[in-house]
């Protein structure tokens, strides 16, 4: 069954009031919905309320779902709109274009002082990146996951959402663009910067910089 | 990027995401991999980035908390009851 046909079947089951269909959706997408809401609404309890409102909005507009996007994309879009509206109602409105201008700035991914600036080794590492601990052991995996959660939480909203959509949830760049209402160029820059900052965050907490 | 050799590490690190996303041309990819073959710190940088992506992918496998799931099921029941009125 194609994803589109599977989505339409889930929608039909929800409209028939089948609990199992809703349970499977909640289990699949609630953690991602909470992450996406927290990009804008930092307080976890408030973000959870925003997500709950988004689920209700989704249920109430379910009959209008036509399958032009995937159910997941549609749901994530509702969550993000709800979270942005929540912030707009409480703060000065910041247009999306201003946020893009602020967050999608081209610039070096690695701090320039990590490279030699002149001499025969100009442009080469002066302070080498050391390997991260392997996430293969369950204990180390949990520690690294917790650090990455912190790193994601420290990103500005659009970078956070692009990273969650593309790297945590595995959506394509095009799907992320459709949900966030941004161009492909901006999506690539935001993801590039978000990954770079996440790496730097982990490196600063995990390793001493090795010298060549 | 032009199709030439990649010497400077500070240029290589800017291409890591495109490399991982298979967005480099064949010539760019060859130059990138040739640099990596002789540059341990850039290889270490790439490995760090791969770890970040692997960990990020594992975050998506989390399950919702049981109490949250119960609240949402109550929400669904309420919606269902309202709809059938």
Q: What's the pLDDT, averaged over the residues of chain A?
A: 90
Shape of chain A: elongated
Which CATH architecture of chain B would you pick?
A: Orthogonal Bundle
Overall 3D geometry of chain B? Answer: elongated
The domain count of chain B comes to: 1
Query: What is the percent of helical residues of chain A?
Result: 55-70%
Quote the beta fraction of chain B: under 5%
What's the CATH topology name of chain B?
Arc Repressor Mutant, subunit A
Q: Which segments of chain A are poorly predicted (pLDDT under 50) over 5 or more consecutive residues?
A: none
Q: What is the string of helix and strand elements of chain A?
A: HHHHHHHHH
Return the CATH topology of the largest domain in chain A.
Answer: Arc Repressor Mutant, subunit A
Residue share in helix of chain B: 55-70%
Judged by helices, strands and strand pairing, the structural class of chain A is mainly alpha
- Roughly what is the average pLDDT of chain B, rounded to an integer? 91
CATH superfamily of the largest domain in chain A, called what? Winged helix-like DNA-binding domain superfamily/Winged helix DNA-binding domain
User: How many whole angstroms does the radius of gyration of chain A measure?
Assistant: 20 Å
């Amino acid at each position: 069954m194609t994803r589109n046909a599977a989505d339409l079947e889930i929608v039909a089951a929800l409209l028939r009031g089948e609990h199992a269909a809703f349970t499977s959706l909640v289990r699949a997408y609630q953690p991602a919905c909470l992450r996406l809401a927290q990009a804008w609404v930092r307080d976890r309890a408030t973000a959870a309320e925003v997500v709950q409102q988004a689920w209700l909005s989704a249920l109430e507009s379910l009959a209008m779902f036509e399958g032009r996007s995937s159910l997941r994309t549609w749901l994530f879009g509702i969550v993000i709109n709800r979270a942005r509206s929540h912030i707009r109602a409480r703060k000065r409105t910041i247009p999306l274009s201003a946020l893009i201008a602020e967050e999608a700035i081209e610039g070096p991914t690695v701090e320039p002082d990590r490279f030699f600036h002149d001499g025969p080794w100009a442009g080469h590492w002066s302070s080498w990146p050391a390997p991260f601990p392997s996430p293969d052991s369950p204990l180390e995996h949990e520690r690294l996951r917790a650090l990455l959660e912190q790193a994601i939480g420290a990103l500005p909203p659009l970078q956070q959402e692009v990273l969650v959509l593309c790297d945590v949830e595995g959506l394509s760049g095009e799907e992320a663009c459709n949900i966030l209402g941004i161009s492909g160029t901006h999506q690539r820059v935001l993801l590039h910067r978000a990954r770079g900052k996440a790496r730097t965050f982990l490196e600063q907490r995990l390793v001493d910089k090795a010298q060549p | 990027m032009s199709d030439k050799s990649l010497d400077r590490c500070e240029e290589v690190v800017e291409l890591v995401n495109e490399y991982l996303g298979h967005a480099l041309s064949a010539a760019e990819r060859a130059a990138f991999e040739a640099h990596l073959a002789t540059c341990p710190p850039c290889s270490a940088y790439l490995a760090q980035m791969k770890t970040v992506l692997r960990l990020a992918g594992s975050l998506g496998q989390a399950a919702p908390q049981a109490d949250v799931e119960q609240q949402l099921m109550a929400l669904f029941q309420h919606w269902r009851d309202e709809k059938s009125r």
